[in-house]
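The pair is set out directly below:
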Amino acid sequence: MARLPRLTLANMPHHIIQRGNNGAEIFVDAQDRQQMLDLLREMARRFDVDVHAYVLMPNHFHLLLTPHSDQGLPQFMQAVGRSYVRYFNNRHGRSGTLWEGRYRGTVLQAEDWLVPTMVSMDLNPVRAGLVQKPGDWSWSSYAANAGLRNDALIMPHTLFWALGNTPFARDAAYVAAVEAGLGSYVQERISHAALRGWALGDEAFIEKLQQKTKRRITRQRAGRPPKAV
């Protein structure tokens, strides 16, 4: 079966996942992780992409971002991917591919899925057993979005700003959302959509989105729960 082209639309949030080849580690130490963050920041400026959230895991990373042109996202990911592989291979004396094929990801309905996707990303190190609390993992945007530190990479989405009328209220609301966690169904929807490339949103969102692209954006009727994967 021919694989679908990536679903990329300007001015809409996208959840992106890039994995290491065969589950191999893509970050050996803090220097590697900092190099990735530096590249993300540089390329986000170059290709006019707003990064709302991120988490760097040992063998993959997640991004939540909004490109401001239809080609901004693929150009951004290509530039980050190529630059990081060149750096990583040179530093660690290796050659060949680092990534497990092309990145995965999709468009999501911000009103319903922006904050849950951020929460899912911040809880990833906890689910993986790397830390006990999201704030204990240094390589995510949790601290920035919880108001604990400044992060030059992060550009908050307008709906994130709407969580509170003051920075304190907004930070507290986000921390509360992370502490509340996600149900298994919501987590499954988020993961399934990004890995399969299907748009994440309600029926009205799916129908409106389908009018903007010839590419199929859902495998099944909107609203039907996905099968477990």
In short: The longest strand covers residues 49-56. Helices lie at 30-46, 72-92, 110-127, 142-145, 158-161, 167-180, 184-196, 203-210. The CA atoms of residues 14 and 107 lie 4 Å apart. The radius of gyration is 17 Å.
